[in-house]
Design goal:
Elements (H helix, E strand, L loop, with lengths): L3 H5 L22 H8 L7 H6 L8 H4 L10 E12 L2 E12 L3 E5 L6 H8 L7 E6 L2 E2 L4 H6 L1 E4 L11 H11 L4 H14 L15 H13 L5 E5 L7 H16 L3 E5 L3 H7 L2 E6 L2 E7 H5 L4 H8 L18
Parallel strand pairs: 3-8, 3-9, 6-7, 7-8
Antiparallel strand pairs: 1-2, 1-4, 4-5, 9-10
Helix pairs in contact: 7-8, 7-9
The protein binds adenosine-5'-triphosphate.
Adenosine-5'-triphosphate (ATP) binds next to strand 2 and helix 5.
């Protein structure tokens, strides 16, 4: 006998498999067999699936195709955040909401306020006003609780670069309260995962820019935080290492971790992020799921539109005269 779950997967039994796109519109006279399994939303947690075995008759309400799953809880909540430098308004009353399991991209032109925003979210920079809650803890009122659950890859980070990569990771692990053997084993794991295992015994000051990014990402992850805030994590990182790092981050979000990252690489944001905020001149001009923000355009086209379009380059004839 065919169960509803096998029907949803398109089993080869005599009954026709149910198409997932339009299960509710097909009235076969046996809706209780087909629609509920086929309608299962993609985002349902594995634990929830186990709780309702496919052979058991679910209550009517649970089988309603209209029943929506609860959205994941909010992990980062930014409210009315503002920062000025003299007369420059770097961040102008920004609100952001990031939910658990999300890979949330922050994009914007140079000087838009991305680094300033991320620095205030991680407690590296004090805002003029506004609040940031990370996993329910106020970053400025309860910084230890907020920082315990946050991993940070800041822009232009200063590292203890006389240490070897392994020493640096071990040190970061110890600062976060890991025991020695956990810090050591995680150092090895992260070295392999990010493709820097062969360089872990070299001083960080000898690393290339891309290698510094990778060791910094490893340092941000070593205490298995709930939230990763990564400022330009893939800048200067080669494509193979980028893919490896993305795999790692996707595994992290699939298991309930949350990533907030900034990037100028629209294709990459489009590839990895489920949600995005476009910041221009210190304000959020668009925010939502990737599809909500880009609409029918590519993210890059939408970004250029929001950022004020391209400026035609005029003059500069001297550039084509060549000095010789
Ligand atoms: N320490 C500072 N002192 C004065 N102005 C600053 C300082 N830090 C940032 N700013 C200004 O704040 C604004 C936002 O800068 P921010 O670094 O946040 O932008 P960004 O979006 O991260 O830019 P980029 O993409 O170039 O890294 C810019 O006008 C910048 O010049």
């Amino acid at each position: 006998m065919e169960s509803s779950s096998s029907a949803a997967q398109g089993s080869s039994s005599s009954r026709k498999p149910v198409k997932q796109a339009k299960p509710a519109t097909r009235r076969t006279g046996k809706p209780e067999v087909t629609a509920p399994g086929a309608k299962k939303p993609a985002g349902v947690a594995p634990g929830a699936k186990k709780a309702a075995p496919s052979t058991a008759k679910a209550p009517r309400a649970a089988r309603s195709p209209r029943a929506k799953p609860e959205p994941p809880p909010v992990v980062v909540e930014v409210t009315s955040l503002r920062k000025t430098y003299g007369s420059t308004v770097a961040v102008d009353d920004i609100d952001l909401t990031v939910r658990r399991g999300s890979m949330f991209g922050v994009v914007g032109p140079n000087g838009a306020g991305k680094t300033t925003t991320l620095s205030m979210i991680t407690g590296l920079l004090r805002p003029d006003s506004g609040t940031v809650l990370v996993a329910g803890s106020d970053v400025w009122r309860d910084p230890i609780a907020a920082k315990r659950v946050t991993g940070v890859l800041p822009d232009r980070m200063r590292l203890f670069d006389r240490l070897t990569g392994a020493q640096l990771l071990y040190y970061c692990g110890m600062l976060h309260g890991l025991d020695r053997s956990t810090a050591s084993s995680r150092t090895e794991d992260l070295g392999v995962a990010l493709g820097i295992e062969g360089s872990l015994n070299r001083p960080v000051r000898d690393y290339s820019i891309g290698m510094v990014k990778k060791i910094s990402l490893a340092a941000a992850m070593i205490h298995s935080p709930r939230v990763l805030v990564l400022d330009e994590p893939f800048e200067s990182v080669d494509p193979v290492s980028t893919s490896q790092a993305i795999d790692l981050l996707q595994r992290y979000t699939a298991s309930g971790g949350t990533v907030l990252l900034s990037s100028h690489n629209m294709a990459l944001v489009e590839r990895v992020c489920d949600s995005v905020a476009v910041i221009v001149d210190g304000s959020v001009l668009a925010v939502g799921t990737l599809d909500e923000v880009r609409g029918k355009q590519s993210l890059e086209e939408r970004f250029v539109e929001l950022a004020g379009g391209r400026v035609a380059v005029e003059g500069l004839e001297w550039l084509t005269t060549f000095s010789d």
